[in-house]
Design goal:
Elements lengths: L1 H78 L4 E7 L2 E6 L6 E6 L2 E5 L1 H49 L4
Amino acid sequence: MDSQRQCNFLFFFLLFLKTLIFIQCTYLKVMSEEQAQQMLQQMQMLENMYTELSQKENSIKNIIRDADSAIKSIQEIKANPDSETLVPVGMGTFVKTKIVPNEKIVVNVGAGVAIEKDPDSALSYLESKIKELEVALQETNAQRQQIAANLEQGKQQMQQIIQQPQSQPQS
């Protein structure tokens, strides 16, 4: 009877241990799922930020391209003061006009404000704006690269979390 009791005790003890291990594994899996959900949310936020920064970068590049085009146009007007040009009037419609020498150039300085500048001042203004935009472009690019690195790190952590329950002992 004594050995029977020991056998029963051992059986229930092993059953208890097995249940405890199962509960721990289940708990670890729940923790991993919670971690995975949190990581997924963080990664989605990072992906959104990455997309926004990419769009900002493209916008800055377009503005720089427009400023470069304006500089080239002003330089061409200075070189050929009596030249003709096409002026857009809307909906793909243009009017041919003659450039009047030594005229002022109207420059948009932001917030809906435009001022008249002589060609040299307009060129200086546009060149300084390009320098500012290039700095902003570099900063945006650095932020985008940092977020890309954070995304890569998050992907690696997600892989570890996904593989973690598989490496736990199964009951």
